[in-house]
Amino acid sequence: MFLLIVDSHIHIFHNTLFTKREWNNSTIDFKINCLDRILKTYKKNGVLALRDGGDGIFASCLARKVAREEGIIYRSPIFAISKKDHYGLFLGRSVCGIDDFKNEFNTLKENKLDHLKIILTGIVNFNRFGDVGDIAFTYDELEYMVKSAREYGVPIMVHANGCEGVSIAIKAGVDTIEHGFLISNKELYGMAEKGIIWVPTLSPLGNILDAKDPNFKNQLNIIKKVYIIQVKNIIKAYEIGVKIALGSDAGSYGVTHGTGIFDEIRHFQHIGFDKNTVLKMDLENGSKALGV
Known about the structure:
The structure is a single chain. By secondary structure, the protein is α/β, with parallel strands linked by helices. The protein has one domain (78-290): Metal-dependent hydrolases (TIM Barrel, Alpha-Beta Barrel), CATH 3.20.20.140. Helices cover 47% and strands 14% of the residues. It is built from 11 helices and 10 strands. The strands form 3 sheets. Strands 6-7-8-9-10 form a 5-stranded parallel sheet, with helices on both faces. Strands 1-2-3 form a 3-stranded parallel sheet. The protein has a two-stranded parallel ribbon with strand order 4-5. It starts with a strand and ends with a helix. The model has no long low-confidence stretch (mean pLDDT 97).
């Protein structure tokens, strides 16, 4: 039986085939060849639907075209929107406020974004438990961006961690929350109530823990604590009806393109989900996240 696998969170520009400098100085043929090699790996493994989290070099924009030739469904935000002097510039472009956003959103529309990617908070701090960075945008700014995407007709993908960040993302009515580490039952019930899809990306932390990665030997205890909380939240979320989609964050440290989603499936199985349940979540909720 043929089985379609969806990876609901990747970053194709993070890979071993080129650096940002090489990309910027290369020919279009080189770019297409690199992207095609990556996409062929996905295709070989039956991963035929991908949702990118954006980049600052238009790699995912080009990958969308290459993917079409390979028969792969590919969704790209073109680039992510972050706040100036906050986390996330490497994933796209930073803005100072609404006026800046308007200009960048026009560029996104010119390139036919599939979804708007907003970076609302930082990432998990492996050196200080509980720290996920500042909330980058005010609620009014977030609400304006969400409304703009709604009016244009595309869903909103939000990188958010911590109770406060995820809470305001829920209040603003986003479509998917990416990562969502270190949150509480309140946010889980909020996602369930509003039908927001959660992409909890276990692989980046789980793979480090599985490998007992020596590069993180002084941080493994905090990584494990965060991971355990995420696992408990996933189990609770499933019980109360949160739509959970599987995204590996492929391209991030220790998560390989083409196989990262199988790491994600494995992590879900290890925390108690049977394989059929995981594959059903991956296909049904992943398809919703991609708008398939």
